[in-house]
Amino acid sequence: MKFGYFDDLNREYVITQPDTPLPWINYLGCQAYFGIISNTAGGYSFYRDARLRRITRYRYNNVPMDFGGRYVYLRDDESKEFWSPSWQPTRNDLKDYTCRHGMGYSVIGSTYSGIEAHTRYFVPLDENLEIWQLTVTNRRATKATISSFASIEFCLWDAQDDATNFQRNFNTGQVEVEDGVIYHKTEYRERRNHFAYFACSERDASFDTQREAFLGRYRSWDKPATVEAGQLTNSIAHGWSPIGAHQVKLELAPGETKQIVFVLGYHENPVDQKFDPPGTQTINKTLVKPTIAKYLDPKQADASFEQLRQYWESLLGIFQVNTPDIHTNRMVNIWNAYQCMATFNMSRSASFYESGIGRGLGFRDSNQDLLGFVHMAPIRARERILDLAATQLPTGGAYHQYQPLTKRGNNDIGGGFNDDPHWLIIGVSAYLKETGDWSILDEPVQYDNEPGSEKPLYDHLQRSFNYTLARLGPHGLPLIGRADWNDCLNLNCFSDTPGQSFQTTTNKEGKVAESIFIAGLFVQAGRELSAIANHRGLGTEASTYLAEVAKMESVIIKHGWDGEWFLRAYNDFGDKIGSNECKEGKIYIESNGYCTLAGIGLEDGKAAQALAAVGKHLATKHGIVVQQPAYTKYYIEMGEISSYPPGYKENAGIFCHVNPWIMIGETRVGHGDLAHDYYSRINPSAREEISDLHRCEPYVYAQMIAGKDAPSFGEAKNSWLTGTAAWNYYAIVQWILGVRTSLEGLEIAPVIPKSWPGFTATRTYRGVVYKISIERKGDGNQIALTVDGASIKGNVVPPPTDGRKEVTVKGILS
Ligand code: BGC
Ligand code: NOJ
Q1: CA distances from 346 to 33, 160, 258, 398, 708 (A)
Q2: Ligand 1 center from residue 488 Cα (angstroms)
Q3: pLDDT digits (tens, 9 = 90+) for 513-569
Q4: Ligand 1 test: best mutation among 359, 503, 717, 722, most atoms within 8 Å of CB?
Q5: Looking at ligand 2, which atom is closest to the CA of residue 655?
Q6: Any catalytic annotation for residue 487?
Q7: What pTM was estimated for this model as a whole?
Q8: What's the DSSP call for residue 278?
Q9: For residue 271, how far is its CA from the centre of ligand 2 (angstroms)?
Q10: Strands 71-76 and 144-157, how do they pair?
Q11: What CA–CA distance (Å, rounded) separates 415 from 482?
């Protein structure tokens, strides 16, 4: 069953039924001001950091779900009936409800009682504000007298404090209202120099700023007393809960349309110009007023919307493909790329499942995310890499996360995840392959943000590599530390206390538990680092890396091979994990994925054997599960992985992030059909028809789909913010379609299904447009390339040195 449809031409998903199984959200903003918005206008906004600069309040895990957001109400002032065109919060029986989620905007609306209304929400480029354009049309045969209301609930900035510290917060709320603009200035009188505002294009609007005045006692958003009565009260909040609400009265002749613009924004004043006049406690508004006035003009709003459309057009235009599979095209050309920008912007901080207060930017997460967005935002990727590297510890280890606002490592979230440092090498390498900007390696970067500790970025990569060499276990495999990619494989934790965080509780300085996954990652990262060293003319150093890589490969084969697949780990007692000898958790996806992706066992058939075992034991119709058999009870020596009921999350759920490792592995052994089949099993667009089972948005990947051991097998959870976005994009574009970046140029090496006659693609790479067409003439993966008509040796097409800005690349597969 579907709840809407894809409008590929407009790059929108159109939801036609408001009560989707879960809120189906979109993101507003792509630089510093952000919001999440659901299909019924739920959600919230923040500036840069969803924890420390929350602009509007949102109550997670609310009843009813997703209650609170950017709500518009309409009231027929004759019949006194009121409703919300976005369905929530009033939930009337609307006609023609639609929510169009597009690239950086959402348009939500409906018709009710002959009044058609929709609101377009978006954040203009380069501004810290969001625009709501409410358009109301009278479809009745008679004149309509309508009151329109727009409302938001301000958050007192620090979202964690806001949700917990009521003894203080009920006393601090402050607002100012000037020229109809509501300014939210809680704590501005003391150490803040920022404020928020909510403005309305109609000058004779009335307003409310105290929540209780707007809603009425013991009432909720579905039935505000003022909306019911048809009149706001011009209340001024002192303490309690500041809100912003505007009321505009409309007289509409039959067929007449009117538009009202609302602007919700954030502004920072210079510290020495906070007040006007100086010495008072009144906000200095001189710097913000021109911005507010500018965007309240509907023409400006339209122009800004057009700019946003063009921005996405050009970002998505960097890679476009046309294959015989509509789901591949749609995800690659539109939604997967779009999701990659969201994961870049948000990491794992703010979604319907990530509260914005729990997690900052993950070190490993943000590095992996680079794989999916570096081509769209190389300058921002560069900045991100340098920020991440500056939180690296002098040991080469890493804080697991950092706060985007402060750019400091966040120790509260834990550390000692021994895979973390290698992702920096993977991320930097992806950046170099995309841009050829070798200067980044010479950038001085601090360790642990300590002034004076600056070393070239290259030094950070060396330390990342050496980190593992200094932490090898009894078999010569990397020690796992707190955990590796699998946060829940906590082999040194031994937690027996309810509620203890597996991520942060005291961890044993384990010298026994080893990870075959990190071993595979080390091999891959070592090869990348060696190639980088070679490019820098450091041949001897490059060979040292390769020697270590070769050593690790032989250790993997000796101690990390179980006979039919790669082992997963050794635990603190030196016992095997992910082995046929185990009762539960006999085979895991991660080590088999990463080792085959890294090309381990390609020559002697082990890679193909491991992949076949994954196909046999782990693959299901909804995707590939993490391990089998699932853990049926809690194992103290395993940690969080066994804390989940079978089939969920890391305990044998379909963790979509790691599925692409198998897809890539399959391309490495030449299985294009199977690689694409695995790709399609978790492709959300290909799952649209089963939206009632899948439940999450059909336009973006979810972190997890319940595995075959779960009662809800096939149900997705945790959509949007997941490494799945980058990895699937990377797997389909660079390995299945085979349009792959390399240090030397664009490599073309498709491993596509046999049934495909070929495909065409356009890729802008290092300033040159590559027009690519691939034609299948045989069943295999051998490719012969011509560039502008001349055949070339090998399959790497370097950017032309003669000034050509466009090249035509033709490939024949045989
Ligand atoms: C989850 C992981 C997550 C970790 C860190 C665990 O409970 O299962 O998927 O990465 O928490 O937040
Ligand atoms: C989600 C985390 O963000 C990621 O870092 C981790 O690798 C996976 N969970 C698996 O545990």
Answers
A1: 11, 17, 35, 19, 30
A2: 7
A3: 999 999 999 999 999 999 999 999 999 999 999 999 999 999 999 999 999 999 999
A4: 503
A5: 10
A6: yes
A7: 0.97
A8: T
A9: 39
A10: antiparallel
A11: 7
